[in-house]
Amino acid sequence: MVFLTLSCLIRSRGPDRYWKVQEVLKHARHFRGRKNRCYSLAVRAVRRAFLYATKARKLKKRNMRTLWISRIAAASREHGMKYPALIHNLIKCSVQLNRHVISDLAITEPRSFLSLAKLARARQQEGFRAALGDGKETPGVLSRVVFLQ
Amino acid sequence: MRSSHVSPKMALSRVCPRLWRACSLSFPLQSSLLPAAVRLQSSASSTPTPAEPPVPRTSLSLPPWAGAPSPVPLEEEQRQHAAVMTAVNSIISGQDFGRLFAVVYFAGRQWKVTDEDLILVENHIEAECGDRIRLEKVLLVGAQDFTLVGRPLLAKELVRVDATVIEKTESVPKVNMKFWKRHRFQKKKIIIQPQTVLRINNIRLAQRLHESYQILFVDGFVSK
Predict the structure, then answer these.
(1) What's the pLDDT at A119?
(2) Contact B125, B153 (CB under 8 A)
(3) Which residues of B touch A145 (CB under 8 A)?
(4) SS3 (DSSP) at B126
(5) Which of A72, A123, A81, A117 lies closest to A99, judged by CA?
(6) Which of B2, B34, B195, B200 is the most buried (most CB within 10 A)?
(7) CB proximity under 8 Å: B 165-224 to A
(8) Sheet with strand B138-142: strands edge to edge
(9) A117-144 in b/e burial notation, b at 16+ Cβ within 10 A?
(10) Residue B90, Cβ density class (10 Å: 0-12 exposed, 13-18 middle, ≥19 buried)
(11) Could you report the per-residue pLDDT of B138-192, keeping only the tens digit for each?
(12) What is the CA A3 to chain-centroid distance, rounded?
C-alpha cells in the first residue's frame, strides 16, 4: 500500500487507552513490586485480588462463627460447663440468642453470661432428674437390676 | 448502687408448667439399691454398711453423670421466688439501675445495643431520615445488677427501645469476580448495597414486673 497523506499513515487505535489502563492500575497502587506500575503484571494481580475478595466474603462468615464458638466454649469452661451443653440447654429453654451475641456478652457482660450459664446448668440438672426418674426400672422390664433386687 | 446478687438459687420464667415444676422425687440409683445390697451380703454382717450396688461396676452400670442433686421443695421455691421478685422489683421501680443494654432482633440479625449507639444496617428500611422507630423484638435486657432473659422474646410492655433513622446511603462498591483459568471465562460485577444508619435513642423498662412470671432460676437474674 502507498499512503499519500500523514493522516492515512498513522493509525488511530482508540482515544481512551490511558483511562482504561488507569482503571486497572488504580486498584493495584498499593501492591508491591512492578505489579503496581506495569499494566500486564497489574492486570493479573488485580484479577487475583478480586477473586480472593469474592471468596473471602464467604469464608469470613465461617471464620467468624468458628471464632464465636471458641470464645463461648472458653467462657463457659470458666464456669464449669462445656460449649455443647450450654448451647443445647439454652435452646431447650427457648432462649434464641445467637453465637455472635453470646460471645459479646461473654466479653463485655460477664455477669449476664454467668446467669445464662447457670440457667443452662439448671436445665441440664432438670434433664438428668427427668432421665433418672425414681431409680426403679419401668414396669414389665426384666433386667439385672430387677433380678438382683 | 451495686447490690450483691440474691443468694438463693432460683429462676423466673413465664408460666410454662411443662418442665419447670420441680421433680417430685429423684432418688439416685445407689440409694434404691442399698437395701438390696444389704440383703445380698452374708447374713453375718448385721450392720448396714454403705456397700456398692449389686450390679457389677462396668462402664454402663451407672449413668455417666454424677448423682443428680435433690430438687428444692415447693414452699422453699416459692419463698425464693417472692424474694427475688421483690428484690428485682425494688431495683426497677427505683429506676436507678444506670445504663441498660438490650439484645434486639432487627433486619435478620441480633444486635447488642445501649443508649446512643449507632447501627449500620446493610439494607433498605421503609422509613425516612429523621423518623423515630421502635425496635420491638427484644431478646434480652440487662443492667448492672440484673438481667431479663426472654424466652424467646420479652413482652412489648416490659421494654421499649427507640431509634432514629439518621442516614440512608449506599455502600462502597464491592467487586464480585469469577474467573476460570484456561477457559476464557471471566465475569466482573460491581455491587452497591443500600445502607441505613440508626441511632438508638433510649432503652426503657416498665415500672414493675408482672406477678405471673414464674421463677425458673436465680442468683439475681430474672429469666422470663
Answers:
(1) 93
(2) no
(3) 33, 55
(4) coil
(5) A72
(6) B200
(7) 174-179, 186, 188, 216-217, 219-221, 223
(8) B109-114, B101-106, B138-142, B147-149, B222-223
(9) bbbbbbbbbbbbbeebeeeeeeeeeeee
(10) exposed
(11) 999 999 888 999 989 998 988 999 999 999 999 999 999 999 999 999 999 999 9
(12) 65
CB B196, CB B111: distance < 8 Å: no
Per-residue pLDDT tens digits for A66-91: 999 999 999 999 999 999 999 999 99
Residue B70 DSSP symbol: P
Q: What would you measure as the largest C-alpha separation in chain B, in angstroms?
A: 93
The one-letter amino acid code at B44 reads A
Distance CA A31, CA A47 (A): 13
Placement of cell 441505613 in the chain? B196
CB B166 within 8 A of CB B200: no
Residue B221 CB neighbours (<10 A): 27
State the pTM of this model.
0.76
- So what's the ipTM on this one? 0.81
Mean pLDDT in chain A? 91
Q: Which residues of A touch B179 (CB under 8 A)?
A: 47, 51
Distance from C-alpha of A112 to C-alpha of A94, rounded to nearest angstrom: 17
Beta-bridge mates of residue B103: B112, B140
Give the CA angle between residues B41, B45, B49 to the nearest 5°.
Answer: 75
Strands B101-106 and B109-114 come out as antiparallel
Containing B105, the helix (H) or strand (E) segment is strand B101-106
Residues 6+ apart with CB under 8 A from B184: none
